[in-house]
Amino acid sequence: MAATILDVAKLCGYSKTTVSRAFASPELVTEKTREKIYRAAKALNYTPDAIARAMVRGRTDNIGFIIYEKQYPVVLNPFYSPIFESVLQTCSQKGYSLFISSDRELRLPNGQACVKKQMDGVILAGHSDEQIVTDLRRQNMPVVLLNNALDMEDLLCVTTDQYGGAALAVEHLVERGHRRIGLLAGNFSPHVYLSRYSGYCDVLQKHGLKIDGRLIRSIEPTVEQAIAGAAELLSMEDRPTALFCTNDTIAIGAMKAAIRAGLRIPADLAIVGYDDSENSRMIEPELTTVRVDKTAMGAIAAEHLIAQIEGEPPRKEVIQTAVELVVRETT
Amino acid sequence: MAATILDVAKLCGYSKTTVSRAFASPELVTEKTREKIYRAAKALNYTPDAIARAMVRGRTDNIGFIIYEKQYPVVLNPFYSPIFESVLQTCSQKGYSLFISSDRELRLPNGQACVKKQMDGVILAGHSDEQIVTDLRRQNMPVVLLNNALDMEDLLCVTTDQYGGAALAVEHLVERGHRRIGLLAGNFSPHVYLSRYSGYCDVLQKHGLKIDGRLIRSIEPTVEQAIAGAAELLSMEDRPTALFCTNDTIAIGAMKAAIRAGLRIPADLAIVGYDDSENSRMIEPELTTVRVDKTAMGAIAAEHLIAQIEGEPPRKEVIQTAVELVVRETT
DNA sequence: TAATTAAATGAGAACGTTCTCTTTTCTGCT
DNA sequence: AGCAGAAAAGAGAACGTTCTCATTTAATTA
Fold first, then answer.
1. pTM for the whole thing?
2. How far is it, in rounded angstroms, from Cα A231 to Cα A212?
């Protein structure tokens, strides 16, 4: 039905090889020839078939992006969105397209994981497990981990300093003179949860502050849950004077709870969030939060994956992008 | 290097045809045989090659999603995110993967648009032009438009009732007794901009209210620009008592300007946004806004495209998803 | 102008599947 | 046991490119 390279060749009188070249590497073909070929192609509505191309070249110039997070949908997630955007941009710059996959698509009828689903390499974001990584690599599929760290040979992981970020936030609250600092922790993946939790605890202890279990709430990271959790905390007779929330959505919920309880922010209650998502600047007063360099995360992951695809040997490393406290109006 | 179907066939003693069947349509193969084949495949780390598969089947089970918006990056965009998510989900359900492309990738060296970039159909979101659609269809590529309407034969467009949504918002403000209603309009695509603008004007006129050019500001849809624009409006001696903002980001900027000017919302200034984005519920007080059914938009676009891919003839239609006023606390 | 080199073009195999058609094996029934 | 009919398995072409290598044409030099 659709015209192939052969039809074009026939029409313009050149060989299919030359036609192929006119599209794939125009510089190898005389301008005059090129013109003729393009004209013929246009007349036939010919367009090179990327699949056939990928088949013979053994590469697709596609990269897969797979998120393993149960909590949120993929793209709505305010944490992954900017990362995704950055990955997309880097890939686009280097001539790669991006493919979104869910875990489901990776399964063969025999249970093996597989992404011969036309891509040259894969970014696994979130809490993927070792099995997946092993399966993929057995198929010679380059892999890079994003926002997760697995201790495997030749595996590059791009994360942030979860512990350090939490420590930064709590340290800041202690500096401002707070002694009763609550923790509103989203139940993220174990790696994330534990790192931030330890950051919180260690800083308190370092300053001789007691860790009070009653000031710690573990919740689903939604605004509603955060409002409920914060409300409980704020209704205690010796309520915390500051809250560290392990992401901005939770922090925003906490702010709402505070405002509704008639507390002024930051005078009556200081709040620090985590992620520096878009929302943190939307809310009034603007949220003090921990910024993680998501653009860097995306770019680094994409760049390393592409390097690997293009022949560089994979190496074992955990790259931690910078965290930074952004002091705004809630502290 | 990597094992092919032939290697597996040789190892397990079956023909390549049977091995192919074991993966592509397991029900056509005895369980015993299947077991043996899977075992051999595992031993060789064999995985079917999707490219070769796509080549012979003439289809890829991939769908392209292309956004034409200059204003925002693709995914960060609070308007497109939920749509994208919905498209992703629908595709995934129906066995399709999603491909993100930018305009750039569609161009051949000869200037033609082209997405033989391994996909079976394309969703064009935002202000794509007729040329693109024509080019793609010449290549027998099924196309559906999202958030845009072009008057072309057999072209299905999924949009929302831009005019009606704006009318709903302004009507609501009039009902609450406002006579001086300002318009803070983001400079979106002509289609969107004009529809919402006319909605605003028509409702005012319908109620015998004069359209005052000084109450209308056209801005880039960013928080900063919105703050500046709203601040100007609010500093007039006969300032508006209500603002219709053509998206939530602008509305949030307006809220910030109002709060900073010491105005109470909604007592001193009522505000209505547009889109019902995540942020509208984040801010305090929560924003009254026009909800567009983005989930439906994404799902409908994806479903129609898939139907077309699977053989249904394309038809000309503009499907407008519901708009609805969500009254919250700012009016 | 002839000889040499570079540039442009062409021929044909190869990529790894699935599809159609054919052959073989199995199942159930008389 | 014999036979029909169904189920399972196999043979070989086909999909539309690009790649390597060979050939022709053009450009450069002596």
1. 0.88
2. 17
